[in-house]
């Protein structure tokens, strides 16, 4: 375990890397005693600093929702980070690639909460009842630390969250068979990957239920209006300036963005 001073130093280093766009040495290398609890506390301190500078938390992202990614990270559960309001983009946006260090993009579904949801024992049907609508989303992931990364590095670095793009057609959660929602991900006109939302823990709402239970352990929860990124069901795709990305969700519409 780290001291609070060490945790704050790690959070400050991540903030500096974010501002300078120069990746820092992995926190797990600088502070070898770092554990999962330390990593989430570092993320808390990072978020507190960003909020103090004017940002606002508008939701959460969930990562490591696929079995393959958990095995690769030697984890038995997902992880989570915060979504801040200055990292929200809409369909059709032209996004400056230079605001990121090494951006990659993933296909996801976003849950927009219609009511507060908190407490232990939360299940998929609780999430569906509390969700106002589900909407297609792209997550841009980014690393503020050098590679390779331990899971503690990823968690401390806000679970590698970079930005979110919302688009397509919002749907009520009970109006669609969510696990069967599929999408194609195209880069510069070439389809690079396809996937089904069932890849997210069997049901895309399962990750949200996990998150609510995890937040309950630290006295938190989801608020009405919060956006929750449920996890990726395609592989991460490297993006650079000049790329045009199109994600087609079939009946749920499509999202198109470009990078300048």
From TrEMBL:
Transmembrane segments: none annotated. Signal peptide: none annotated. It comes from the Bacteria. PANTHER family: 2-KETO-4-PENTENOATE HYDRATASE, ACID HYDRATASE. This is 2-oxo-hepta-3-ene-1,7-dioic acid hydratase. It comes from Paracoccus broussonetiae subsp. drimophilus.
């Amino acid at each position: 375990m780290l001291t609070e001073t060490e945790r704050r130093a790690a959070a400050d280093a991540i903030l500096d890397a974010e501002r300078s766009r120069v990746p820092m040495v992995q926190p797990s290398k600088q502070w070898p005693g770092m554990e999962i609890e330390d990593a989430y506390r570092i993320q808390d301190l990072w978020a507190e600093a960003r909020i103090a500078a004017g940002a606002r938390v508008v939701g959460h992202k969930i990562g490591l929702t696929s079995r393959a990614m958990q095995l690769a990270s030697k984890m038995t559960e997902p992880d989570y980070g915060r979504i801040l309001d200055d990292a929200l983009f809409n369909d059709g946006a032209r996004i400056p690639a230079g605001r990121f260090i090494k951006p990659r993009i993933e296909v996801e579904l976003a849950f927009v909460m219609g009511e507060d949801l908190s407490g232990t024992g939360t299940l998929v049907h609780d999430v569906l009842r509390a969700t106002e609508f589900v909407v297609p989303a792209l997550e841009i992931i980014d690393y503020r630390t050098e590679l390779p990364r331990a899971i503690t590095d990823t968690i401390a670095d806000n679970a590698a969250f970079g930005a979110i793009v919302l688009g397509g057609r919002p749907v009520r959660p009970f109006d669609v068979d969510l696990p069967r929602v599929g999408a194609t991900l195209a880069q510069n006109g070439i389809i690079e990957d396809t996937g089904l939302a069932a890849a997210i823990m069997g049901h895309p709402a399962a990750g949200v239920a996990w998150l609510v239970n995890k937040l309950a352990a630290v006295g938190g929860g989801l608020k009405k209006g919060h956006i929750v990124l449920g996890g990726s069901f395609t592989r991460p795709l490297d993006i650079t300036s000049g790329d045009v990305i199109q994600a087609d969700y079939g009946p749920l519409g499509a999202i198109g963005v470009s990078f300048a």
